[in-house]
Write a structure and sequence with these properties.
The structure is a single chain. A hairpin with a 5-residue loop joins β1 and β2. By secondary structure, the protein is an alpha+beta fold. The protein starts with 7 loop residues before the first helix and ends with a helix. The chain is built from 3 helices and 3 strands; from the N terminus they run αββαβα. A 3-stranded antiparallel beta sheet has the order 1-2-3, with helices on one face. The chain has helices spanning about 10, 40-45, 50-60; strands spanning about 15, 20-25, 45-50.
Length: about 60
Amino acid sequence: MPKMKTKKTFAKRVKVTGTGKLKRHHNFTSHFAAHKTHKQKVQLRGSALVDKTDYKRDKELLQG
């Protein structure tokens, strides 16, 4: 069976932390930004971790 290839588009959007968790950016940051509150825009600036329900599927995309 051939080796699994890393999904490069996904690898560019996610970084692996030192403890093996997946770090991602938030969605909805630029489009229609004028309609969002200042609080929303500030909270969307930071990064977040991939949820545990998506972790297994996302980790398989990086196996390569």
